[in-house]
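Shipment paperwork, digital attachment
Item: protein structure file
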Amino acid sequence: MDAYDEGSNARHGPNAPRRPAPPAQRGAPADSTEPDVPPGPPEPDVQPGPEQEPVASLAPPEPVASLAPPEPVASLAPPEPVASLAPPEPYPPGEPRTGIAALSPRYQVGVALALAVVAIGVCVHIGMTFLHVAPANTVTRAHGEAVDDWIYPEFEQNWKLFAPNPLQQNISIQVRAGVRGPDGMTLTTGWYDLSAEDGGAIDGNLLPSHTQQNELRRAWDFFVATHDSENRPVGLRGSLSESYLRRIMVLRLDRDDAVRAATGSSGVIERVQVRSRTSNVPPPEWSREKVSTTPSYRELPWWRVPQDEARGGVR
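Attachment content:
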C-alpha cells in the first residue's frame, strides 16, 4: 500500500499533515458523553511484531466468597419485654385493695397512730389494775393515790389477786428430841433445823424431790391452820395434824446422822418438840421500807412418841 494512500487506514509519517476530521465528528453534539481530549503529540509508529504472551499478575487474588451463613438481618419487630426483678405488688393489678391498704397514705398514718394510742391505753389499764389487786408493795405505797384515782369508781375490784397474801417471811421448822439410852437415861438433843437441811438438798439440784420441797412446809401449814394461838387443836383435823407432824419429825430424826452420833446409834426416841423460827424478808436496798429482822419463835409442847412409832412402826 502506498504511503500516500488516502484511505482511512493508511499510515502517515511523523511529518505528514493530519487530515481534518470528518464532518460527522466535527458536528458532534455538545452533550456527548466522550470528553474533549486536547490534541497531544503524535503517536509513535509501532512496528508490528510477534504477540507477547500475557504475564501473570502479581496482584493478590480476589477473595473467594465465604461459605459461612450470612449474618442475620436486624429484625424490625419490637423487642420482647424483660422480666422485672422488682418484688411483685402485694395485690394483683386487677384486684381492688381492702382494709387499711385501701386507704390513702395520710389515712394510713392516722389509723396507725390511733392503734398505738389504744395499745398504750390498754397496757396502762392492765398495769393499774394489777397494782390495785396486788398486795401492798413499794410501788403502791409511793403511787397508791394515782392507782386509786384510775380505778375508782368505774373499775373497782373487790377481790385480791394473791389470797390471802404472798409469803414475805422466812419460816424454818426446827426439832429436838428426848432420846433414852441403853442405861435408861434420857438425853435431850439440840435443835435441828430441818428446813435448812431441805434447802441444802434443793440448792444446786436440777430435779429436787417433792418431799424436800413441800412435805415439811405443808405439814406445818396444816398444823397452824387447825390450831389456835395457844397451840390447842380446833376440831378433829387438829389432832390429825399433830400426828402427821410428829411422825414426820420422828422419821427425819431417825435418819439423821447427827442424832445417831449423839445417841451412839442405840438410843430410842421417846418424845419430840417442834418450834418455828420466823423472820421477815429484808426489803431491797433502794426501798425506804423499814421492817424488823429479829426472829420470833413459836414452840410447841413436848409430844410423847408411841412405841410403835419409836421403833419404826410408821415406816
